[in-house]
Design a protein that fits this description.
It is built from eight helices and 16 strands. The chain is of the alpha+beta class. It has two domains: 2-116, Aminotransferase class 4, branched-chain amino acid transferase, N-terminal domain (D-amino Acid Aminotransferase, Chain A, domain 1), CATH 3.30.470; 121-279, D-amino Acid Aminotransferase, subunit A, domain 2 (D-amino Acid Aminotransferase, Chain A, domain 2, Alpha-Beta Barrel), CATH 3.20.10.10. The strands form two sheets. Strands 7, 8, 9, 10, 11, 12, 13, 14, 15 and 16 form a ten-stranded mixed β-sheet that branches. Strand 7, helix 5 (149-160) and strand 8 (165-170) form a beta-alpha-beta unit. It binds 4'-deoxy-4'-aminopyridoxal-5'-phosphate (PMP). 4'-deoxy-4'-aminopyridoxal-5'-phosphate is lined by residues 33, 151, 176, 179-181, 200, 202-205, 238-240.
């Protein structure tokens, strides 16, 4: 019933979105998904910093300070009472007569909701099957934009093949998942694509990288090939909702099966620990 509209928490039927909102016409906007544990948001600040960064890259002016939106998110959580789930926040460039050219005069439109979600325990414990397919997205995947056609089409294809996630590649170099970052482990070394315009620099990815460093696990932030993926000792995906989820099978452009390995389990536990500590701080 309660949703975020601008920096207000209002009843859902009080929200009205114009049919010429650029988010609706062009997918001209950005979003974030933040996980909620025991009623508390995890990694709120890094998510908002990325939100601000996506806005800057797309030249969308924030209509208020991000701290004001964050305060409304807290209010949204109080009012909805969501304990375990997600908060979704999006900001479109706003309303203008439909025209490709934006004028910098549009007023950004912010909306959001909180929702309980089912646990990812199954994926986290037993692992996922992933469908490996070509990355057909644009070249600014570092922006968390509302344009997700390449992602949703890959995800649908994965689901049609009985897989929980798609793993994408550009000319046989693995980039990321349709909604997650992808890691492989080979001879104890962790590899994941460097954070450039080919991938979204996941907040969970960043946590896992810093945890790996603390645990003296060697990490190489560099693209790895499908051949390397095929020969990997362990494979896992990270995202806000999956946290660390092992991959036990890949099909599609390559086929392989994997055991759930020690490095994956260690990082999964370490992330759960940090998450628990941060939300209970
Ligand atoms: N890559 C893509 C394409 C995604 O959609 C997501 C999830 N939003 C991620 C990576 C993981 O990001 P995060 O850990 O911040 O959820």
């Amino acid at each position: 019933k309660w949703v975020l509209y601008g920096t207000e928490v209002v009843e859902r039927d009080k929200v009205s979105i114009d049919l010429e909102d650029r988010g609706y016409n062009f997918g001209d906007g950005i979003y974030e998904v933040i996980s909620i544990h025991g009623g508390k948001p995890f990694a709120l600040r890094p998510h908002f910093l990325r939100f601000v960064e996506s806005a800057r890259k797309m030249q969308i002016a924030l209509p208020c300070k991000w701290e004001d939106i964050a305060m409304s998110v807290e209010e949204l959580l109080r009012k909805t009472g969501v304990q375990d789930g997600i908060v979704y926040i999006q900001m479109t460039r706003g309303v203008s007569q439909r025209n490709h050219v934006y004028t910098h005069k549009e007023q950004a439109v912010i909306t959001g909701f909180a929702r309980s979600t089912s646990s990812m325990e199954e994926e986290q414990t037993n692992g996922m099957a992933c469908f490996v397919t070509e990355d057909l997205r644009w070249l600014r995947c570092d922006i968390k934009s509302l344009n997700l056609l390449g992602n949703i089409m890959a995800k649908r294809q994965a689901a049609d093949e009985g897989c929980q996630e798609a793993i994408l590649h550009r000319q046989w170099q693995c980039t990321e998942g349709s909604a997650s970052n992808v890691f492989i482990v080979k001879n104890g070394i962790v590899y994941t694509h460097e954070a450039n315009h080919y991938i979204l620099n996941g907040i969970t990815r960043q946590y896992v990288l810093s945890l790996a460093q603390k645990l003296n696990i060697t990490v190489r932030e560099e693209a790895f090939s499908l051949a390397a993926l095929e020969r990997a000792d362990e494979v896992f995906c990270t995202s806000t909702s999956l946290e660390v989820a092992p991959v036990v099978e890949v099909k599609g452009d390559i086929q392989a099966t994997y055991e759930i390995g020690q490095v994956t389990k260690t990082l999964q536990q370490a992330l759960q620990q940090v998450l628990f500590e941060e939300v209970n701080a």
